[in-house]
Amino acid sequence: MNQQDRSYKDKKVISIGTVSELTGLTLRQIRYYEERKLIAPYRNDRGTRKYSFNDIETLMDIADKREDGVQTTEILKEMRLKEKQRESEAEVKKKMLQGQLNAQFRYGRGRN
């Protein structure tokens, strides 16, 4: 998916300092969540991190869960499970669409 096809919420354009201001998290906390693979900022050639609005929402969710005492390993497991569910749902939708297209074209051919 190219940059133009992505939602503004997915574009990684926000600096770590701004993310810290918006979330109330320290730079150290944000870097720690990156180390734990809970967040994946874009890094340019100089290594500067850039985050998206979706990353900020994810960080806020992580912060809320940490405040509730949830360990980062559990948060990561939950995030991976949700990603697998999204992938599975996307695959089901793709198969349903393909089935509908196949049925439509088969139906259309038989009528001529």
From TrEMBL:
Pfam families xref list: MerR_1
Superkingdom assignment: Bacteria
Keyword Signal part of the UniProt annotation: no
GO molecular function: DNA binding; DNA-binding transcription factor activity
Alphabetic keyword roster: DNA-binding, Repressor, Transcription, Transcription regulation
Ranges of residues in domain HTH merR-type: 13-81
Coiled coil (residue ranges): none
UniProt organism field: Metabacillus litoralis
Protein name per Swiss-Prot or TrEMBL: MerR family transcriptional regulator
